[in-house]
Amino acid sequence: MTKRHLTGLSRAELSEYFAEFGEPRYRADQVFRGLHQRRLHSFDEMTDLPKGVREKLNESATPSILTVESKYVSSDGTRRYLMQTQEGNPVETVFIPTENRDTICFSSQSGCALKCDFCLTAKLGLLGNLSAGEIVEQVITVLNDVYGVGGQTPHGTNLVAMGAGEPFMNFDNLLKALEIMSDEDGLFIVPNRVTVSTVGIVPKIYAFAELERRPNLAISLSAPTDELRNKLMPVNTRWNIDELMTAAKAFERTLKRGERFTFEYVLLGGLNDSVEHARTLAAVLKRHDLRRAKINLIPHNPAEQLDYHPPDPAGVEAFKQTLEGLGVSAYVRTPRGRDIFAACGQLAAKHEPNLVNLTSTKSAEERNV
Ligand code: SAH
Predict the structure, then answer these.
(1) CATH code that applies to domain 67-367
(2) CA nearest 358: which of 344, 345, 340?
(3) Which residues contact 297 (CB under 8 A, 6 or more apart)?
(4) What does the domain layout of the chain look like in residue ranges?
C-alpha cells in the first residue's frame, strides 16, 4: 500500500482523513501545523499527538516523499537542490538569497513538454507532473535547510514558479499547493509574495484572471514578432502573439489598483536583442493597450547543448533604454547561480562531480536535509 502524502492535503482533506481514521478533527489541525508551520519531517517529532496516533500515522501516511540527491552552492550564495520523486524523476529547487528578501524558485513539473529552443529544461522532455505535495515539500525542504527545521525566515520568503516545467500545464496541483502554502497556520506565504511564470498557455491565462485570490503573473514572451517567436518558442504556433496579448489584456483588466504584471524577455545575443526589436516590442504593448506590464530582461544563460549566446552588455542597456524611452518599464535581471546550473533555463538535473556538492550521500536520512 502506498502511504498517503499528507503534506499535499488541503486542510479540508486532512480533516476528512482524520475523520476516516476515527480521530477527532482537531488532530488534523495539529498535524497541519506540525507539517507546515513547524516543518517537521516525521510524525514521531509531533509529540503533541498521542503515541498511538503517531503509530497509526506511520503505518498509513508519510510527511515526505522527495529525497534530496545533491545540493550545490554558488559563489553568489544561490543554492540548487536536486531532489528525486519516488518514481525516480528529478525535481530541482533554487534558493536565491537577496539583501531584502530571499526567493525560492520551485519546479511545477519534472522536465517540461514545451520546446523553447533556448532552454535546457526543454531537452529533458516532460517526465511528469508534480503533485501538490511535491511542490509544497520542495519549499519546506529548502526552508529547513537554510533556516533550520522550523526556523523563522528573517524577512519572509518570495516564491516563484520559475523552476522546471510549465506551471499552467499542471494548473490544479499548482493552485492547490499555493493554497496550502498560504495558510496562516502553515507556511503563510501569501499570494502577493508569489509569482507564477507561464510560457503563455492562453486558456489558462483567462482561467487565472478569474481567480479571486491569486499570485502575480509573469508571461515569457522573448520575441516581438510571430515569425521569430514561432522559431524560439513553438507554443506560439498554437497561440500567437495577438491571442496572447488579448489574454494578457483581459488579465490586466482584473488587476487591482497599483498592481502590475510582467513579461519576461530572454535576450539572445544577435537574435532578438536589437534596438529595433525593442521598438517592435513597445509597439506590440501599445497596440494592445497594455499599460500595467513591465518587462524583465533576462540575459541568456548559456549551456553547451544550447546554440545561443548571451547578449552584449551594451546592447542590453540600449534595449532597456529604448523601452523606457517609449514609456515601457524595463528591468534587467542579474543572473544568479550560473556556476552551479541554477540560473533561468539551466535546470536539467545536472549532476556533476566538479560542481561543489555539499550533500553527503551516506544515508537516506542524511540526504533528507
Ligand atoms: N515554463 C515557464 C516557467 C519557467 S520560468 C515559463 O516559460 O515561463 C523560466 C524563465 O527562464 C522563462 O521566462 C524562460 O523563458 C527563461 N529561460 C529559459 N531558458 C533560459 C536561458 N537559457 N537563459 C535565460 N532565461 C531562460
Answers:
(1) 3.20.20.70
(2) 340
(3) 265, 267, 316, 319, 320, 330, 331, 332, 333
(4) 4-62, 67-367
**Which of the 8 DSSP states describes residue 357?**
B
List, chain by chain if needed, residues with CB within 6 Å of any ligand 1 atom.
116, 118-119, 162, 166, 197-199, 220, 222, 264, 266, 298, 300-301, 344-345
Nearest CA to ligand 1 atom 13: 220
Pocket test for ligand 1, best of 159, 162, 272, 296 (most atoms within 8 A of CB): 162
Q: Among candidates 61, 62, 78, 79, which has minimal Cα distance to 70?
A: 79
Ligand 1 mean position, distance from CA 6 (Å): 31
Nearest CA, atom 9, ligand 1: 162
349: cell is 538535473
pTM for the full predicted model? 0.94
pLDDT, one tens digit per residue, over 149-199 is: 998 887 889 999 999 999 999 999 999 999 999 999 999 999 999 999 999
Task: Pick out the chain residues at pLDDT < 50.
Answer: 360-369
Q: How many CB atoms lie within 10 A of CB 305?
A: 9
Which architecture, in CATH terms, is 4-62? Orthogonal Bundle (1.10)
